[in-house]
Amino acid sequence: MPTELEELVGFIAHPNPQIRLVAIENLVPYSVSDPSIFKRENLTPVKHLKFLIRDHPKIAEHALTILINLTADASVVEFVASDEKFLGIALGLLVDPKEPNANLLAMLLANMTKWDGLKDIISRKQPAPESLHSDELVLNQLMDLFVKGADGSYNKHADYDYLAYALADLSKHEEIRRFFLSEQEYDSVLPLNKIKVFTEHKSDIRRKGVANIIKNVAFDVPSHPKFLDEDQINILPYLLLPIIGNEQYDEDEMLDMLPDLQLLPPDKQRDTDNNNIQTHIETLTLLTTTREGRDLMRNVKVYPVIRETHLRVEDDGVREACERLVNVIMADEAEQGAEKAIEEEDDDDNRIVEI
């Protein structure tokens, strides 16, 4: 016989909305403490939860919260993310400027992108709300939501911060890296240029996600000239500013630094998240794969910034990343030999969002 909890799970499909609300509200904690109750009968409760994201906003809120927690399980992630109809519904709700649960939908999408099959989103299209000023490509809509929706400026209920994690996971796929580096027809802008400004945003989630997007895209070595060109992406200031603090530099060092790094205010602070600092340094190391990248970093005095970061940040990961970068940019080219092949590492954006 089913347990009381299992019977309660059955009530989330009840035709009476008040009964559905009471049942699903009481079930939210069990999506973390006892997720197995939602996996009965070939995940039938999960099927019901997917349907409920279009229910009354409060019911939908609880359904999304439970789905976010359940998608910590890889089998549930695939079951949810591979449902084309559900994905279309979720993405349609996400871009609605009046959707009250948009942030939860962004969190669920961040978990769904753990499933590699979701890279097919690269070709997915849907009508764009007029207020978004985007095109039909879903990836462009997600980018525009992320940029225009910060701080509740597109939807008063949402800031879309968790799209940073979704986009970071997607950027691990080669075809989506190419998207970030390709000028879009509808606005003539490279997607990477839209998000690079968030490396110093107040949101920890945005900074972390964007740091990992930039690093993932930097694995495309042929694009490095575009990364470093001042008239194209010009990424160096956006990598260096988050890792520089209020330390003083010798005048001869300062004069050769990038203009953005000169005359910083005395209260300038480096990123408070050491993982972000490490990620930016690892991206700089990726950009030393070519001789041009190494020479540029020497010319604009990247070494003093890394030297001070190594001295001032008490974190083993940061210090090891600093040492690896210094070994490259301070080495004699004649001794350095062949250009390095740098392997991709797992980052914090791999984590599952849990409420």
What does the average pLDDT come to? 92
List the uncertain runs: 338-346, 349-355
Helix content: 40-55%
- Helix count from the secondary structure assignment: 21
Shape: elongated
Order of helices and strands: HHHHHHHHHHHHHHHHHHHHH
Instruction: Report strand %.
Output: under 5%
Distance between the termini: 31 Å
Structural class estimated from helices and strands: mainly alpha
Major β-sheet annotation: none
Strand elements, count: 0
Q: What's the alpha carbon Rg, rounded to whole Å?
A: 23 Å
Pfam family, one: DUF383
Protein name: Protein HGH1 homolog
InterPro entries: ARM-like, ARM-type_fold, Hgh1, Protein_HGH1_C, Protein_HGH1_N
Family: Belongs to the HGH1 family.
What's a quick, concise take on this entry?
With 355 residues, the protein is an all-alpha fold.
How would you characterize the overall build of this protein?
Helix 2 packs parallel to helix 5, helix 8 (102-112) packs parallel to helix 10 and helix 13 (204-217) packs parallel to helix 17 (274-286). The chain has a domain at 1-70. The longest helix is centred in the first third of the chain and has 14 residues, at 57-70. It is mostly helical and 355 residues long. The chain has helices at residues 4-10, 17-27, 30-33, 40-52, 57-70, 74-81, 84-94, 102-112, 138-148, 163-170, 174-180, 191-195, 204-217, 224-228, 236-240, 251-256, 274-286, 291-299, 302-312, 316-329, 333-336. The protein contains 21 helices and no strands. The protein is elongated, with a radius of gyration of 23 Å. 41% of the residues are buried. Residues 94-277 form the Protein HGH1 N-terminal domain. InterPro entries: ARM-like, ARM-type_fold, Hgh1, Protein_HGH1_C, Protein_HGH1_N. This is Protein HGH1 homolog. Residues 336-349 have a biased composition (Acidic residues).
